[in-house]
Amino acid sequence: MKLLLASLGLALALTAAPVSAQRFVCRGTTNSPYPQFVSTYHDHQRVAPGARGLSDQFTSFSAVFDDADDDDGDGQPDLRLNPEYVVYELRGLAPGRNGNFDEPPVSIDRPNKWYASPGLVPLVEAIQGVTNRRLDDSYSGAGTVWNRGHLAMSDHAQRISPEAGCNTHVFWNASPQAADLNQGPWLHLENYSAAASNKYRSIWVIAGPIFDPATPKLTIGDPGELKVEIPDAFFKILIHESPSGIDTLAFIFEQPNALDADGKPVPTQIWVNCNRASQVGHVYDHRPNLVTIREIERRSGLQFFPGHPDREALLGKRPRKLWPIETRFWDSGTPCGGQRSHP
C-alpha cells in the first residue's frame, strides 16, 4: 500500500502543472545504457498466458519470444523472429490539479536503431546463410510500409520511468506492423488502454502477433539479412480485476498482406493514420474488432488463464461494447486524431 500511495503521489506531482515535455534521449548506443529490469510494484506476470519459447523480463513488461520450434505442424522447425506475446500491468495515473490525467511530461527521443538483445543472440547466431545478424537491419528500408510495431507501448512504460520507456525499443517487443495500422487504430486503442487504467487504477495488457497457417509466409529482410515473418493479424487483451471478478476486452486486428508487382510484401488493407483522422472526420470504433479470448487462443496457440477456475467463462465471453471511459480520464495532450472518446 505504501508503494501504491508513493506511486500515485509521484504521478500527481508529474501531472500537477502543465509544463513542456522534457526530452529524454534513448539513441546513440547499440546496447541500452539502462538496466533491463528494475524491480517495481508491477506484477506483469500475473495474467501471463502459457506459451513455448524464450522468456525475459523488462521493467515495464514481460515477453516470450518464438524459438525454433515447429509452429505450423509440418515437422520442420520454424523461426518467425517475433514475440509470442508481451504482457504488462499498466498502473493508472492520478489527476493533476486541473483534473486531467495527463501523461508524464517526458518526450522519449527514440533510437534510430533499436537496442541489441543479448538473450536473442544464441537464437540468431544459429541461423544459417546470414551475413547481417542485426534484426534492426531487416526493418531498414521497410519502415514506411512496416513499422517496428510496439506491443508494449513506450508511453505506457515511461509512466514507470523514462529509462523503462527507452527499453521498450527491443525486438522482444516488436513485430512488423503496417504503418497506418500501427499509427492509427492500434495507437488509438493504446490511448484507450491508458485511459482505462486511469479509471480503474490498474489493468493488464496482453498483446501479440497471429500467424495463420493457411496464408503464404511473407517476410521482411533483404538477402543476407534475418527474415522476419509478417503477422496476419494482431491481438490485444485488456484485463480489469476488481472485488466483483475479472472483466476482459479482447480484440483482433487483421493485417492481410501479399506481394506487390515488385515482389515486395505490402499490406492489402487500408487504415486511417492518426495524423489524418481529424482531417477526414474519421472516428475510431473498435467494436468490430471485439472477439472472444477463445478465438485468440485458437489462432495464436497460446493458453490464457491456465488453471483459473473460471477459465471457460473467461474464454467464451464476447463483449459487444468497450468499457465506458469518460473524457476526463484521457490524456489531453496529443491523442490519436484528437479523439478522447470511443463509440
Descriptive notes:
The protein is an alpha+beta fold. Helices cover 22% and strands 22% of the residues. It has 10 helices and 14 strands. A 6-stranded antiparallel sheet has the order 2-3-4-8-11-12, sandwiched between helices. A two-stranded parallel ribbon has the order 1-5. A hairpin with a 4-residue loop joins strand 2 and strand 3. The longest helix is centred in the middle third of the chain and has 16 residues.
SSE ordering? HEEEEEHHEHHEHHEEEEEEEHHH
Mind describing the biggest β-sheet? 6 strands, antiparallel
* DSSP strand count: 14
The rounded distance between the terminal residues' Cα atoms is: 35 Å
What's the pLDDT, averaged over the residues? 91
State the helicity in percent bands: 10-25%
The best one-word shape is globular
Q: Output the strand order for the largest sheet.
A: 2-3-4-8-11-12
Computed CA radius of gyration, to the nearest angstrom: 20 Å
Task: Summarize the topology.
Blueprint: H1 2-15, E1 22-25, E2 54-57, E3 62-65, E4 83-91, E5 106-109, H2 121-125, H3 135-139, E6 146-150, H4 154-157, H5 162-166, E7 174-178, H6 179-182, H7 185-200, E8 202-210, E9 219-220, E10 228-229, E11 233-242, E12 245-254, E13 257-259, E14 265-267, H8 274-280, H9 293-300, H10 311-316
Parallel strand pairs: 1-5
Antiparallel strand pairs: 2-3, 3-4, 4-8, 6-7, 8-11, 9-10, 11-12, 13-14
